[in-house]
Amino acid sequence: MSRHSHYLIRHGPGFRFQMAVPADLRGLLNRKMWRQYLGTVAETEARVAALTLALRYKQEIARLRTALQANGAAANGTTPRDIGGHATLANGIVGPGIDCRLLSPPATLPTLELPQPLASATSAAATAPEASKSDGIDSVTALVGVWQRVAQPRAARTVQQMRRRVELFVKAADARRPRDVTREHIMRFRDAVENMSLSHRTATQYLESIHRLFAVALSEGLVDHNPAAGVRVRKVAGKFADRQRRRPFEPHHVRAIFAAMADEPEAFQWIVRICAYHGMRSGEVTQLRVEDVTTLFGVPVLRVHDRFGSIKNRFSERDIPLHPACAAFARYAASVPGPWLFDPEKWRSDRFQR
Asked: Contact at 8 Å (CB) between 175 and 201?
């Protein structure tokens, strides 16, 4: 990239502008870095946009410092927020979209014209009032769309997971508008998650999702602070044996599950039985091939490996003796024309991967 590449970094399929906030202004602006997503554009266009944003931020840094010196903030003990007329100026810098009504091109540098489509987007941000940042974002659930646009998660499941957790947060904490969410709402959600009999790790992931959501909202200027900052899931004291954790199936539960499979295809029934009797993951079962049902030292076994698929880690590669209750599986495997015991397109799906 160009000599200005320290303002420009790759972000997913596109580019993102970033610029460090000067150390003497971080307390006033309550941030260490300015960031703005530039979109999926050509690198040349992204360079021009990043340089333009950097010049504008530098102009505002100079104006803000001049205003602070003129008002004698350090001398008379007033805080930067107390300086009349300049709180609005500071607020204009806080968000990643600059309030360009306060900007003018520097006298010693030419005005840089942004190429399309960046020019239209930047000009719209320049003429829009400050309140326009939150236009259409009148609910916490609407922040999911903002998070998706900024974070650009690759998997659709990640978006669905975030949406489910945010909906749970809204319901448990009675949270409505993003700017009205307080630390008490987050703590209320934390308490609700802790009462869901989840593991400490899973409960932490629920809370971290809300933290990421409001971190993006803060970065985009939609809220003034992240109410989830510093809120943690509490560790449970006491003995592990005394905790109410997820219990294994009882024998009558297993019999009920097997009975419910009577109308399912034979392949479906074998997948469930192999998982149940051998402690195998569904992904391991559905990627078995005909030659993986073999005999070692006179004992029928199932060979689990990653030659034609994938396993969780190197310790997952193993040979599992075939359970007597599944002895007929060897005959089933011999009847399959192969090479796969189960059709990958049909059975390696969400039905068995969740």
From this structure: no
Fill in the DSSP letter of residue 96.
S
235: Cβ contacts below 8 Å, ≥ 6 apart:
200
According to the CATH classification, is domain 251-353 in 3.30.160? no
Please name the residues in contact with 129: beta carbons below 8 A apart, sequence gap of 6 or more: none
- What are 141-196's pLDDT values in tens digits? 999 999 998 888 888 889 999 999 999 999 999 988 999 999 999 999 999 999 88
CA distance 155 to 5: 29
pLDDT tens by residue, 32-70: 888 888 887 778 778 888 888 888 888 888 888 888 787
Report, in this order, helix, strand and coil percent for the chain, each rounded to 5: 55, 10, 35
Specify the 3-state DSSP secondary structure of 33.
Answer: strand
C-alpha distances out from residue 346 to 340, 342, 350, Å = 12, 8, 10
Beta bridge partners of 293: 302
Structure tokens at 174: 């009675």
Residues in the chain: 354
Q: CB neighbours (10 Å) of residue 30?
A: 13
Contact between 7 and 54 under an 8 Å Cβ cutoff? The reply is yes
Residue 81 DSSP one-character state: G
Q: What is the CATH number of domain 143-242?
A: 1.10.150.130
Sheet of strand 14-20, all strands in order from the earlier edge strand to the far edge: 8-11, 14-20, 33-39
Domain chopping of the chain, boundaries: 5-134, 143-242, 251-353
pTM tops 0.85: no
d(CA 354, CA 346): 15
For residue 12 the two structure tokens come to: 């997913």
